[in-house]
Design a protein that fits this description.
Length: 122
C-alpha cells in the first residue's frame, strides 16, 4: 500500500472522569492515561484531531426507542437513591444490573450523547 494512512483522534478528556462501578471491567481513567500518552509522545502531530460533539436526542432516536431515550434522560442524576429506582426500571433495557456490562452511573445520558456523537462523526 502506498501513501500514509489517515489517523483521526477524537479528543475528549472528560470521558476519563466517568466511573462505571467497581465490578465493571472498563476503567475510564485508562482513557485519560491514553490521552496523556497521545499528547506526551506528540502523536497529535500525526493525526487529525477532533473535538466530539454531543449527539442530539433526535440522533439517538434514529437508533433507539423513545422509551429508552426517555429512560436515559431520567438517569442523568447524581443521587444514589434515584439510581436504585432507575435500576429497577432499567432491567427491561438490560441497564443497571451490577453484573451486566451496561451500568448506571452519574450523568449517563450526557455520556451516551457524547460517545454517540463521537461515533457518528467518526
Amino acid at each position: 500500500m502506498t501513501g500514509s494512512k489517515r489517523v483521526s483522534y477524537f479528543l475528549e478528556d472528560s470521558l476519563g472522569g466517568y466511573y462505571y462501578g467497581p465490578k465493571h471491567p472498563m476503567k475510564p481513567h485508562r482513557l485519560s492515561m491514553t490521552h496523556n500518552l497521545f499528547l506526551a509522545y506528540d502523536l497529535y502531530r500525526h493525526a487529525e484531531v477532533y473535538r466530539p460533539r454531543k449527539a442530539t436526542a433526535e440522533e439517538l432516536l434514529e437508533f433507539h426507542t423513545t422509551e429508552y431515550v426517555d429512560f436515559l434522560t431520567k438517569c442523568n442524576v447524581k443521587h444514589a437513591s434515584l439510581m436504585k429506582v432507575h435500576a429497577k426500571e432499567g432491567q427491561k433495557f438490560n441497564v443497571g444490573r451490577e453484573e451486566g456490562d451496561c451500568p448506571l452511573f452519574d450523568n449517563l445520558y450526557n455520556y451516551c450523547r457524547l460517545t454517540s456523537g463521537r461515533t457518528t462523526d467518526s
